[in-house]
Amino acid sequence: FEYIVTVSEAGAAGEEQTYTVSSFKEELGLSANTNIEKPYSLGGGLFTLSASKGTAGATSIPAFNNTNDQLRVYKNGTTITLSSENTIVKVVFTFNGNYKHITGANVGSYDTASYTWTGSANSITFINEGTDQARITGMTITYLSAGGGEGGDTPVVETLATPTGVEAIAVGKDVTIAWDEVANATSYYVTCGTQNATVTATEADFTMDDYDITYEISVVAKADGYNDSVAATTTVTTEADPNEGGGEGGGEGGESVEVLSEEFDNTTTADSSSAIDSSKFSNFSGATDKAYTSKYGGLKLGSSSAVGYITSKALDLSKPFTVSIDASRYTTKTSEIQIIVGSVTKTISSDELASTTSGTLKTFTFNFDAATANSTIKITTVAGKTRAYIDNVVVTVGN
User: Fold this and answer.
1) Which residue of 51, 267, 292, 349 is 20 to 30 Å from 276, comparing CA positions?
2) How many other C-beta atoms lie within 10 A of the C-beta of residue 381?
3) Residue segments in the chain with a per-residue pLDDT below the cut of 70
4) Is the dihedral of CA 371, 306, 382, 272 positive or negative?
5) Beta strand pairing status for 63-65 and 109-111?
6) Could you read off the pLDDT of 269-302 as tens digits, one per residue?
7) In the chain, which residue ranges form alpha helices assigned H by DSSP?
8) Three-state secondary structure call for residue 23
9) For residue 10, what are the CA distances in angstroms to 78, 118, 147, 154, 348?
10) Helix or strand or coil: residue 25?
11) Rounded Cα gap, residues 193 and 170, in angstroms
């Protein structure tokens, strides 16, 4: 384990001092596997190393470990802090194997790909919020001398320019943000409302949650060795919901369209014991199980021991839609029916379903928010309430 301390000061060449863990043990009287329970002044007072368990429930404090001369920073939020009277502008870590789980710092910018921190601070706290320990084998620290050298000023870390030309365009709920390139920037951190992305190009796309909402936008330029830019800001408003009809006259966009109508016509006079031929009911050409023609003219779903279901063909349900269905219990037995579109489920409880002893099915209508342009509708019974009758399924898109 070694520390390389690079001293950069105006008018002076860089200096390097190398330390090994064995020299620290000799200097400080440390034994193997020593917990860092107090601050240690290292490099003849060039910097101080301290550690903490953090606040996320870690059980072990970081420690010097004799195996392969490592500084171990344990998982679940433990931290190490480097402090100096001089301004630290860069820290580069090396690790043992794949134990590289330093995940961030309280100031500046830490790049988990190059294991490099950049910024300008006299104290930096590094944290391991990963699920395994970090095993540091070395670190290179670059700091600016407090004195600044003969006749010179102390160098400062340059701040990137604020992005200019930020524009945002909304089409429906989709937002595209573009801006001018910033000199020396290697990436940009972009926010739109509560969403965010880091990109290397000068454009970012977001799909927002709502129509007709104004969202705040910010763009920050970033690069190793530079301070982040000041954020450039603007706003964007998503378009009005095209399914809401739209003002005077309404227009064709508010009309409803029937995309599926199935009456399950058959001439069965008794409940069939053979599964339906899905080709006969092409509206429901998807997955089917335990679905039989019914003596009431529709279908009987389920058996005494298993649920039954049918699945529609693919439908364009990218706008709000309704599903209408006639249904009843199987005789007087407890039944339950679910209508499933994507992750959304609508339920008809047994209490809502009439008994079929009278041969009467009730009509139920459900409203759904927009799904996708390639959606299917699954109609199914549920475990323990496996049998029910259905008929006359109608799906309508739009108002």
Assistant:
1) 349
2) 25
3) 1-27, 30-32, 43-44, 56-58, 145-157, 244-254, 267, 278-279, 357-359, 399
4) positive
5) unpaired
6) 777 777 777 667 888 888 888 888 887 778 888 8
7) 21-28
8) helix
9) 36, 19, 9, 6, 78
10) helix
11) 13
HEC profile of 274-337? CECCCCCCHHHCCCCECEEECCCCCEEECCCCCCCEEECCCECCCCCEEEEEEEEECCCCCCCE
End-to-end Cα spacing for the chain = 70
Taking CA atoms, 208 is separated from 176, 192, 213, 233, 317, in Å, by 11, 8, 9, 17, 19
CA 113 to chain centre: 20
**Hey, what are 342's tokens?**
């994507």
Residue 221 CB contacts under 8 Å (≥ 6 apart), including other chains: 160, 161, 162, 163, 182, 185, 187, 188, 228, 229
Q: Running DSSP on this structure, what letter comes out for residue 229?
A: P
- Report the C-alpha gap between 184 and 226 in whole angstroms: 9
**282, two tokens:** 């092409």
* Partner residues linked to 137 by β-bridges: none
User: Radius of gyration of the chain from Cα atoms?
Assistant: 34
Q: Cβ of 178: how many Cβ atoms within 10 Å? A: 15
Closest to 63 measured CA to CA, from 49, 77, 43: 49
**Parallel, antiparallel or unpaired: strands 134-144 and 2-9:** parallel
Residue 269, burial from CB neighbour count under 10 angstroms (0-12, 13-18, 19+): exposed
Instruction: Work out the percent of the chain whose per-residue pLDDT is above 70.
Output: 81
Query: What residues have CB less than 8 Å from 283, skipping those under 6 apart?
Result: 260, 261, 262, 312, 313, 393
Greatest alpha-carbon span in the chain: 106
Structure token pair of residue 245: 């009809």
Dist CA 249 CA 133 (whole Å): 65
Phi, psi of 61 (to 5 degrees): -85, 145
